[in-house]
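Q: Hi! First time doing this. I have a protein sequence and I read that you can turn it into a structure. Is that right? Here it is:
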Amino acid sequence: MKARVKWVENVCFIGESESNHSVILDGPEELGGRKLGMRPMEMLLIGMGGCTSFDVVTILKKSRQAISDCYAEIEATRAETVPKVFTKIHIHFVLKGKDLDKDQVERAIKLSAEKYCSASIMLSKSVEITHNFEIKEDA
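A: Yes, that's right. Below is the predicted 3D structure, encoded as C-alpha coordinates:
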Protein backbone atom coordinates (compact mmCIF):
# COMPACT_ATOMS: atom_id res chain seq x y z
CA MET A 1 0.00 0.00 0.00
CA LYS A 2 1.25 3.45 -0.84
CA ALA A 3 0.14 6.99 -0.10
CA ARG A 4 1.40 10.50 -0.78
CA VAL A 5 1.09 13.60 1.37
CA LYS A 6 1.76 16.94 -0.36
CA TRP A 7 2.28 20.22 1.48
CA VAL A 8 -0.08 22.99 0.29
CA GLU A 9 0.60 25.92 2.65
CA ASN A 10 1.03 26.69 6.35
CA VAL A 11 -0.01 23.39 7.98
CA CYS A 12 -2.35 22.28 5.20
CA PHE A 13 -1.62 19.10 3.23
CA ILE A 14 -3.33 16.95 0.60
CA GLY A 15 -3.25 13.21 1.24
CA GLU A 16 -3.57 10.99 -1.81
CA SER A 17 -4.22 7.28 -1.66
CA GLU A 18 -3.04 4.57 -3.98
CA SER A 19 -6.69 4.08 -4.93
CA ASN A 20 -6.80 7.67 -6.29
CA HIS A 21 -8.74 9.35 -3.48
CA SER A 22 -7.75 12.62 -1.84
CA VAL A 23 -8.33 14.24 1.51
CA ILE A 24 -7.37 17.63 2.88
CA LEU A 25 -5.52 17.65 6.18
CA ASP A 26 -5.05 20.81 8.23
CA GLY A 27 -3.66 21.62 11.64
CA PRO A 28 -5.11 23.61 14.52
CA GLU A 29 -5.50 27.38 14.22
CA GLU A 30 -2.85 28.01 16.88
CA LEU A 31 -0.33 26.33 14.59
CA GLY A 32 -1.43 28.11 11.41
CA GLY A 33 -4.36 25.91 10.38
CA ARG A 34 -7.44 27.39 8.70
CA LYS A 35 -10.00 24.61 9.25
CA LEU A 36 -9.70 23.49 5.62
CA GLY A 37 -9.71 19.81 6.50
CA MET A 38 -9.45 17.22 9.21
CA ARG A 39 -6.54 17.06 11.56
CA PRO A 40 -4.31 14.01 11.06
CA MET A 41 -5.20 12.50 14.45
CA GLU A 42 -8.90 12.84 13.58
CA MET A 43 -8.21 10.93 10.37
CA LEU A 44 -6.54 8.19 12.39
CA LEU A 45 -9.65 7.79 14.57
CA ILE A 46 -11.95 7.82 11.56
CA GLY A 47 -9.79 5.25 9.81
CA MET A 48 -9.96 2.95 12.80
CA GLY A 49 -13.71 3.52 13.12
CA GLY A 50 -14.23 2.72 9.45
CA CYS A 51 -12.10 -0.41 9.67
CA THR A 52 -13.93 -1.87 12.67
CA SER A 53 -17.38 -0.81 11.39
CA PHE A 54 -16.65 -2.56 8.08
CA ASP A 55 -15.87 -5.75 10.00
CA VAL A 56 -18.91 -5.57 12.28
CA VAL A 57 -21.36 -5.02 9.42
CA THR A 58 -19.76 -7.74 7.29
CA ILE A 59 -19.75 -10.27 10.13
CA LEU A 60 -23.37 -9.53 11.02
CA LYS A 61 -24.48 -9.87 7.40
CA LYS A 62 -22.66 -13.21 7.11
CA SER A 63 -24.43 -14.27 10.31
CA ARG A 64 -27.73 -13.54 8.56
CA GLN A 65 -28.57 -10.66 10.87
CA ALA A 66 -31.07 -8.17 9.40
CA ILE A 67 -28.90 -5.10 9.97
CA SER A 68 -30.14 -1.85 8.42
CA ASP A 69 -27.83 0.75 9.98
CA CYS A 70 -24.59 0.97 11.91
CA TYR A 71 -22.54 3.84 13.18
CA ALA A 72 -19.65 4.08 15.57
CA GLU A 73 -19.26 6.99 17.95
CA ILE A 74 -15.59 7.21 18.85
CA GLU A 75 -14.15 9.13 21.76
CA ALA A 76 -10.44 9.37 22.44
CA THR A 77 -8.28 10.75 25.21
CA ARG A 78 -4.82 12.07 24.38
CA ALA A 79 -1.73 12.60 26.49
CA GLU A 80 -1.29 16.12 27.85
CA THR A 81 2.29 16.49 26.62
CA VAL A 82 4.05 15.98 23.30
CA PRO A 83 3.83 13.51 21.75
CA LYS A 84 0.08 13.79 22.36
CA VAL A 85 -0.62 10.13 21.66
CA PHE A 86 -3.98 8.52 22.21
CA THR A 87 -4.13 6.96 25.67
CA LYS A 88 -7.71 5.69 25.56
CA ILE A 89 -10.21 5.11 22.77
CA HIS A 90 -13.83 4.13 23.31
CA ILE A 91 -16.06 2.95 20.47
CA HIS A 92 -19.81 2.97 20.96
CA PHE A 93 -21.60 1.07 18.19
CA VAL A 94 -25.22 1.88 17.42
CA LEU A 95 -26.83 -0.85 15.34
CA LYS A 96 -30.28 -0.89 13.88
CA GLY A 97 -32.14 -3.81 12.40
CA LYS A 98 -34.90 -6.35 12.72
CA ASP A 99 -34.51 -8.72 15.69
CA LEU A 100 -30.73 -8.31 15.92
CA ASP A 101 -29.25 -10.93 18.24
CA LYS A 102 -27.33 -9.29 21.10
CA ASP A 103 -24.88 -12.21 21.28
CA GLN A 104 -24.18 -12.01 17.53
CA VAL A 105 -23.50 -8.26 17.81
CA GLU A 106 -21.17 -8.83 20.76
CA ARG A 107 -19.39 -11.59 18.85
CA ALA A 108 -18.96 -9.40 15.74
CA ILE A 109 -17.45 -6.56 17.78
CA LYS A 110 -15.10 -8.95 19.59
CA LEU A 111 -13.98 -10.62 16.34
CA SER A 112 -13.27 -7.23 14.81
CA ALA A 113 -11.30 -6.05 17.84
CA GLU A 114 -9.29 -9.23 18.31
CA LYS A 115 -8.93 -10.80 14.86
CA TYR A 116 -9.89 -8.68 11.85
CA CYS A 117 -9.51 -4.92 12.29
CA SER A 118 -5.91 -4.14 11.43
CA ALA A 119 -6.20 -0.56 12.66
CA SER A 120 -7.73 -1.45 16.04
CA ILE A 121 -5.31 -4.29 16.64
CA MET A 122 -2.32 -2.11 15.76
CA LEU A 123 -3.48 0.76 17.98
CA SER A 124 -4.35 -1.60 20.85
CA LYS A 125 -0.63 -2.35 21.26
CA SER A 126 -0.24 1.07 22.89
CA VAL A 127 -3.77 2.37 23.55
CA GLU A 128 -6.52 1.08 25.82
CA ILE A 129 -9.48 0.45 23.50
CA THR A 130 -12.94 -0.30 24.86
CA HIS A 131 -16.25 -1.03 23.14
CA ASN A 132 -19.93 -1.09 23.88
CA PHE A 133 -23.07 -1.08 21.79
CA GLU A 134 -26.76 -0.47 21.65
CA ILE A 135 -29.34 -2.05 19.40
CA LYS A 136 -32.28 -0.15 17.97
CA GLU A 137 -35.18 -2.08 16.54
CA ASP A 138 -36.44 -1.29 13.05
CA ALA A 139 -40.04 -0.11 13.04
